[in-house]
Model the fold of this input.
Amino acid sequence: MRREDGEMDKAMLRNIPKVDELLAPTHALCPDASAAAVTAAVRRTLDALRESVLSGVFSLLFSMAIQAQPRKANEISGLMVTGIFGGAVIPPLMGYCTDLIGTQVGSLVVILGCLLYLLYCSVGIKTER
Done:
């Protein structure tokens, strides 16, 4: 709940459970497990859940886009494939550059390169109409 002045209701903040309260059932089942191990297991479970829920997004977006613009099916499929390829190649490249440099600056260099490429594509490439 929000108040009219934009501040969050303090009673609502007090009702948010603490991390220890959320992990209490796990600690009851595995009392010897460290907090880091439990947190890692919870994170892996949430990642798997997120991936299973989001796995159908590309097909839904593609079918909705084709329904909206059937004459532009080739362009839409090209954009979808480009997005999938970028999502498969850029994150490992960011990780490699981060490991190579030793800080998160490596990821920022890759992101900056992608932004410069997008800027070039949007401004530098002239199309005939």
The chain has a mean pLDDT of 75. The two ends are 51 Å apart (CA to CA). Residues 6 and 93 are 41 Å apart (CA to CA). The chain has six helices and no strands.
